């Protein structure tokens, strides 16, 4: 089964399992719960993680946290299941729409 994952918009998650699409919209990025939503979609369709044979993830550009989480989940699943992510065996990197808003340490 092919898994498609898109969490680049931090107010929704799009998951496709083969040709079935699931969308979870949330009111706050804190409620996104990408992996929990993925597990519920797999369960709803009577799939197990081990049934995943191909992974495609939208690496971005997108929100910093949303892109990072989706790519991290895809890379972790790909590694654990021995499945390529976006057609490659090496981990892929997220593409951010803007630099992270992280303050520099004070000296």
UniProtKB/TrEMBL annotation:
Q: Which InterPro entries match?
A: ATPase_NBD (IPR043129), Gcp-like_dom (IPR000905)
UniProtKB keywords: Hydrolase, Protease
Q: Which residues form the Gcp-like domain?
A: 37-85
Could you tell me the superkingdom of the organism this chain comes from? Bacteria
Any one biological process term the GO annotation gives: proteolysis
Q: Which Pfam families match?
A: TsaD
Q: What is this protein called?
A: Inactive metal-dependent protease-like protein
Q: Origin organism of this chain?
A: Candidatus Collierbacteria bacterium GW2011_GWB1_44_6
């Amino acid at each position: 089964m092919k898994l498609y994952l898109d969490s680049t918009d931090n107010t929704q998650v799009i998951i496709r399992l083969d040709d079935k699409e699931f969308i979870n919209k949330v009111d706050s990025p804190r409620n996104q719960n990408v992996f929990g939503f993925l597990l519920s979609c797999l369960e709803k369709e009577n799939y197990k993680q081990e049934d995943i044979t191909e992974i495609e993830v939208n690496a971005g550009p997108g929100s910093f946290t949303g892109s990072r989480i989706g790519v991290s989940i895809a890379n972790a699943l790909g590694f654990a299941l021995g499945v390529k992510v976006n057609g490659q065996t090496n981990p892929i990197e997220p593409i951010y729409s803007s630099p992270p808003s992280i303050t520099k340490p004070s000296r």
